[in-house]
Amino acid sequence: PPSPPPPPPAPPPPADPFVPSPIDDALLNIFRWTLQRQSGVTLPDIPGFDGMMAELHELRRTKGTDELERVSLQTMTALAGPVPLVYRTFFKEWDATPALLAWFAKQLLPFLVGDMTVTTITSTEDGAPTGAENGMGSTNTGGGLLVERCLVLEGSNCKGICTKMCKVPTERFFAERWGVPLSMEPNFETGACQLRFGVEPLALEDDLTIPPGCLGRCQANAAAAGLGVDDEFVELC
Fold first, then answer.
1. How far is it, in rounded angstroms, from Cα 224 to Cα 230?
2. Could you state, in chain order, the average pLDDT of each consecutive group of 10 residues for the chain (237 residues)?
3. Backbone phi, then psi, for 144, in 5-degree steps?
4. Residue 56 needs a FRET pair 20 to 30 A away by CA distance; which of 44, 70, 156, 226 works?
């Protein structure tokens, strides 16, 4: 008799968990405190990053995803202070601006998204970006940053929180406050997210990196299923 087919390859092992430093813990506390002031949602019985995720779910549940976007943008604006205005006034036109912003983001944001790798942006001959790859393609410029396993996406398991608390307001923040476009491309299967400073983002409805419907592992999807609601009608949650 023919031999049985080989078994499918085993899934890749989980990535090593991100281990925050004392500085990361301090930055998380400051960010969460500012987020609480902007949202009015406080769950003091749940500490640390898990507590912040619980507060974001509560904000989404009670006030919707548009409020997530507003609160996130206000939080980033409050924490940045005058720095974006100064940078926009004196350094916006530098060719190295996208690469500098990617480098600074890598130093400052691990507390929120985890480990990151600086990448280059690959462009075609007409200047259109084709992606961010390490040193491959027609023309490579700085400004790429790969979030290896986003803590917000994995911690929330929620498309609404990913897109409306992180992606959309962060893209707006850099465009409106820094004067620099930013494209963020989350991968909902791997948990990674590719950032490209200096690249215009697609409109949310045109962005093919955003899957339709609600993620099966999201709290909102589970709640909708319990109520007999089809998840295709659950918007960005």
1. 7
2. 52 66 96 97 95 95 94 97 92 88 95 95 56 50 92 90 95 95 92 95 87 66 46 45
3. -95, 145
4. 226
Look up residue 18 and give its amino acid: F
| Non-local CB neighbours of 208 within 8 Å, separated by 6+ positions | none
HSE-up (13 A, CA, CB side) for residue 159: 21
Residue 52 CA to residue 32 CA, distance in Å, equals 6
Q: Helices 48-63 and 65-80 meet at what angle, rounded to 10?
A: 130
Is pTM, for the whole model, over 0.90? no
Give long-range contacts, CB 8 A cutoff, 24+ apart: 209-214.
209/185, 210/159, 210/163, 210/186, 211/159, 214/159
Contact assessment for residue 32 and residue 51, using Cβ atoms and an 8 Å cutoff: yes
Tokens of 158: 């929620």
> Is-contact 161 186, C-beta < 8 A?
no
* Conformation bin of residue 127: beta by default, left when phi > 0, alpha when psi is -120 to 50: left
Contacts of 174 (CB under 8 A, 6+ apart): 101, 180, 181, 182, 197
Amino acid occupying residue 119: T
Who's near 18: CB < 8 A, 6+ residues apart?
110, 114, 115, 149, 151
Cα distances (Å, whole numbers) of residue 170 to 23, 73, 182, 227: 22, 7, 8, 33
What is the rounded CA–CA span in Å between residue 139 and residue 120?
9
Quickly count: other Cβ atoms within 10 Å of residue 10's Cβ.
6
